[in-house]
């Protein structure tokens, strides 16, 4: 098995899967249950589902569709989106998910991260950090699916989340997300150099050389793939896929 985890990151909107570009222009991908079945056959090690509208619509997660996903899925699952309370997270774990990803609620209630970590274990809590460059090229952290600029420094915020008890960070470059241009290696390196916990690089993967670069040059512990695993190629139609094990091994060795 690869030491570096390669995780399809799938975006939920209502009960459908979509794919965005820079957190905008959501394109329909398909039914999440059918997609899970394909990933089962492809023997993917882990899946991450993010509900991209739950927080902004001020609603709880769609537990119905999540239960259907968990019932169908053979691999470990993570979920993020709209988690406002301990009870929300507890339901996600009861459904069968192994990890929860927390983003927007951590700004209002940082103690939420600690509460989850103390009850479910650090390994079950992923703190999600969405980052965008401002006009002056400075990195800033955003919440609410990229809608609100918190004006936080991503390095300092990552360190704070680690202290609060997060066991892992999901680091997404809004500027690169859905672009096929490659990960923001500079950003990832800044974060991995500042924390001891694993960092999942997300946003921008277009080929396996991008995966190799962010692992080798920026020390990402894991990589999330979006467009690469739901489209044939850039500009082409939907095709749920996953790199073959020998390709991954070759690119990461």
Contiguous uncertain segments of 5+ residues: none
Number of domains: 1
Shape: globular
The rounded distance between the terminal residues' Cα atoms is: 12 Å
Task: Give the full name of the CATH homologous superfamily.
Answer: Aldolase class I
The overall strand count is 12
Rg = 17 Å
Q: Report helical residue fraction.
A: 25-40%
Number of helices: 10
**The CATH top-level class label:** Alpha Beta
Reading side by side through the largest sheet, how are the strands ordered? Answer: 1-4-5-6-7-10-11-12
Which SSEs are present, and which pair or pack?
Elements: E1 5-13, E2 16-21, E3 24-30, H1 32-41, E4 47-51, H2 63-72, E5 77-80, H3 86-95, E6 99-102, H4 105-108, H5 111-120, E7 125-133, E8 139-143, E9 148-152, H6 154-164, E10 168-173, H7 185-192, E11 199-202, H8 208-216, E12 222-225, H9 227-230, H10 245-252
Parallel strand pairs: 1-4, 1-12, 4-5, 5-6, 6-7, 7-10, 10-11, 11-12
Antiparallel strand pairs: 1-2, 2-3, 7-8, 8-9
Helix pairs in contact: 1-2, 8-10
């Amino acid at each position: 098995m690869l030491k570096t985890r390669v995780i399809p990151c799938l975006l939920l909107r209502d009960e459908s899967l979509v794919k965005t570009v820079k957190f905008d222009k959501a394109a329909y991908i398909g039914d999440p249950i059918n997609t899970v079945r394909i990933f089962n056959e492809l023997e993917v090690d882990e899946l991450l589902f993010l509900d991209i509208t739950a927080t902004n619509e001020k609603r709880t997660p769609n537990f119905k569709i999540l239960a259907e996903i968990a019932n169908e899925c053979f691999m470990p699952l993570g979920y993020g989106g709209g988690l406002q309370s301990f009870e929300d997270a507890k339901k996600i774990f009861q459904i069968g998910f192994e990890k929860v990803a927390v983003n927007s609620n951590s700004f209002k209630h940082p103690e939420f991260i600690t509460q989850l970590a103390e009850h479910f274990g650090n390994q079950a809590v992923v703190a999600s950090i969405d980052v965008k460059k401002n006009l002056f090229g400075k990195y800033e952290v955003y919440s609410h699916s990229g809608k609100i600029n918190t004006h936080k420094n991503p390095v300092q915020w990552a360190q704070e989340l680690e202290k609060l008890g997060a066991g892992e960070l999901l680091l997404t470059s809004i500027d690169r997300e859905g672009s096929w241009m490659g990960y923001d290696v500079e950003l990832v390196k800044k974060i991995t150099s500042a924390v001891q916990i694993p960092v999942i690089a997300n946003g921008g993967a277009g080929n396996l050389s991008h995966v190799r670069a962010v692992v080798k040059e920026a020390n990402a512990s894991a990589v999330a793939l979006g467009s690469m695993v739901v489209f044939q190629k850039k500009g082409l139609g939907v095709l749920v896929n996953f790199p073959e094990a020998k390709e991954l091994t070759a690119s990461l060795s």
